[in-house]
Design goal:
8 helices, alpha+beta, Tetrahydropterin Synthase, Chain A
Length: about 260
């Protein structure tokens, strides 16, 4: 009898100690009592789980980072690319995360893979490369809508890397080079156009003041002399050459007329 009075309290004390569970600040305990889900999740802190009547499932409320493996995607313009992404989500309702889906991590991974292929397959290659932020927002919206019933919240979706074939990379490089050449030619043509406008304005001013051309001659000589060059280039007016050419042509015509007479 003395041993029985010692064993029974010891067993009770051991059972009570084993029933004590400590949940961290970011953890919640979903408890099933006789197979029925309790209305509220327990934690954080000290909770009592009386086995085998109770069974507790620990759920973390921290943000989880789930990497989506590389997926072969055919874009709308029939270009095959390999894309991988990363999803950031957290559990906001532990009860739904346990009851509504058997493994919410695996289910989210599979849903992310199929959504990534379907959404990126509707976009063109240029959109995939230049408007990645827009596609990320669309992916997040679709995943968040489907996982809300599982008690989860998708906070961010990012397309990490887009792998292209070597031939496509070379084609894109040639396209970028041609685009830069086109921009360079347009900029050069615009510069020539502006320079021509300024020259026309300067010619109009000089035409109103003929003495201005002489001042330009003198200024040019001063600039040449300041460099201490041994060779001096004296600018000759084009009008003078034109006048001399006309005079010479007139003299030739007069000589030809005299010979003919």
């Amino acid at each position: 009898m003395d041993i029985g009075w010692i064993i029974v309290p010891a067993v009770i004390i051991f059972y009570l100690l084993a029933s004590i569970k400590i949940l961290r600040e970011y953890e919640r305990g979903v408890v099933f009592r006789l197979g029925r889900l309790l209305p509220q999740a327990k934690g954080p802190g000290i909770v009592f789980v009386f086995a085998p009547i109770d069974r507790m499932v620990r759920i973390s409320l921290r943000i989880e980072a789930l990497e989506v493996p590389g997926q072969d995607v055919v874009t709308r313009d029939n270009v095959t690319v390999k894309v991988n992404a990363v999803i950031f989500f957290r559990v906001i309702d532990p009860r739904l995360a346990v009851v509504e889906v058997s493994n919410f991590l695996y289910a989210t991974s599979q849903l992310a893979q199929t959504t990534l292929r379907s959404v990126l397959g509707e976009a063109e290659l240029d959109e995939l490369l230049s408007q990645r932020g827009k596609l990320n927002v669309r992916l997040q919206s679709i995943l968040d809508q489907h996982t809300a019933s599982w008690g989860m919240k998708v906070t961010l979706v990012e397309v990490k890397q887009v792998e292209l074939a070597d031939q496509m990379i070379r084609a894109i490089a040639r396209q970028a080079e041609a685009e830069r050449e086109r921009r360079a030619k347009v900029i050069h043509a615009e510069g020539e156009y502006l320079a021509a406008e300024k020259l026309a304005m300067a010619a109009a001013v000089i035409q109103q003041q003929p003495a201005a051309i002489q001042l330009r001659y003198l200024q040019t000589l001063v600039e040449i002399g300041a460099e201490h060059n041994t060779t001096i280039v004296f600018p000759l007016p084009i009008d003078l050459i034109t006048s001399m050419t006309q005079i010479l042509n007139g003299s030739k015509k007069i000589g030809v007329s005299a010979v003919a007479a």
